[in-house]
From TrEMBL:
The chain crosses the membrane at residues 66-86, 106-136, 148-166, 186-209, 230-250. One of its GO terms (biological process) is lipid metabolic process. Residues 269-306 form the GP-PDE domain. It comes from Balaenoptera physalus (Fin whale). This is GP-PDE domain-containing protein. One of its GO terms (cellular component) is membrane.
């Protein structure tokens, strides 16, 4: 009697067979969807043409090359404006009060501006990250005209608020300078960590460009070979090493009040002993005063009810 074939396969065997029969789902489909999403968000083109991706690395028109620095400038200006406004948090009530005196309508305009500056910084940083990912994938950059208009508006808006700060609120820059002195060590360590993480992708990209240059040497003249090799080394390697060198030498010019020698520290602040909670227990006040005197308090403070 012929035996029937067992049509029930174990789950592990099914999974292995599915992975073996359809590797394109794991290696091509997901990658293609990711690239399509990035390109769609950056250039509003949800269909990637094959000729958009060059085998010789990333390529973009001269307009995109001229506008990409504008994107970087807008990112830096929006982040700086957000940092200045965050450091001015103690003046939010005074800012709202001045607007109330001028308009007669009370609202938390400081929080509105904080949210607005945060949106600008997030928008420009997102476009910058998407553009970097497209360059990493070797896809031609094409920023949609809507994004270009918004980027120009971001630059104009930040310039307007910076003009207001320089004209009517100059003391804010003193606060920003003190804040940068306090946070300088942390910013320096974070920047070093980011540059170390970026060193591996930059190294791999330099190796890739060197290999591409060697392949293309046979199709170039002697002058073009030297110019191509020199331009690749200067455009990628030199700026990275210059930034890294500046970060390593930055502690020589940093002055932070958080980092001082023990002999140069100021005197300890005086503290007062405050009364306890007499409504819970009358003896709390006496215990609080005894503890304050034990720890060397400068004075005692209490309330007298008449």
């Amino acid at each position: 009697m012929p035996m029937k074939a067992n049509r029930i396969e174990p789950r592990s065997q099914k999974t292995k067979r599915w992975k073996k029969d359809s590797p394109w789902i794991l290696h091509i489909f997901n990658h293609k969807c990711c690239v399509t999403s990035i390109t769609g968000c950056y250039s509003c083109q949800w269909k990637i043409k094959q000729e958009k991706k060059s085998k010789r690395g990333p390529y973009c028109s001269w307009r995109e090359r001229l506008f990409y620095p504008c994107l970087v400038i807008s990112f830096c200006m929006s982040v700086l404006l957000l940092f200045v406004w965050i450091e001015s948090s103690n003046e939010y009530f005074g800012f709202d009060w001045v607007i109330f005196l001028g308009t007669g309508f009370w609202f938390f305009w400081s929080i509105v501006l904080l949210s607005f500056f945060g949106i600008l910084a997030a928008y420009t940083s997102l476009l910058l990250v998407l553009g970097s990912l497209l360059l990493w994938e070797g896809i031609e950059l094409y920023l949609h005209w809507c994004h270009k208009i918004l980027i120009l508006l971001v630059i104009l808006t930040c310039s307007f608020f910076f003009w207001i700060l320089f004209t009517y609120w100059k003391d804010r820059w003193l606060t920003v300078g003190l804040s940068l002195q306090v946070f300088a060590p942390y910013i320096h360590l974070s920047s070093i960590s980011v540059m170390v993480m970026l060193s591996w992708p930059v190294a791999f990209y330099l190796i890739y460009l060197e290999g591409e240059g060697r392949i293309r040497r046979y199709q170039m003249t002697c002058y073009e070979r030297k110019r191509n090799k020199r331009s690749l080394q200067v455009a990628i390697g030199v700026p990275f090493f210059l930034i890294l060198l500046c970060l390593y030498l930055l502690p020589l010019g940093i002055y932070s009040p958080c980092i001082q020698e023990k002999d140069k520290l100021g005197p300890k602040p005086n503290f007062f002993g405050h009364r306890g909670a007499p409504m819970l227990g009358p003896e709390n006040t006496m215990m609080a005063f005894e503890k304050a005197v034990e720890h060397g308090a400068f004075g005692l403070e209490s309330d007298v009810q008449m």
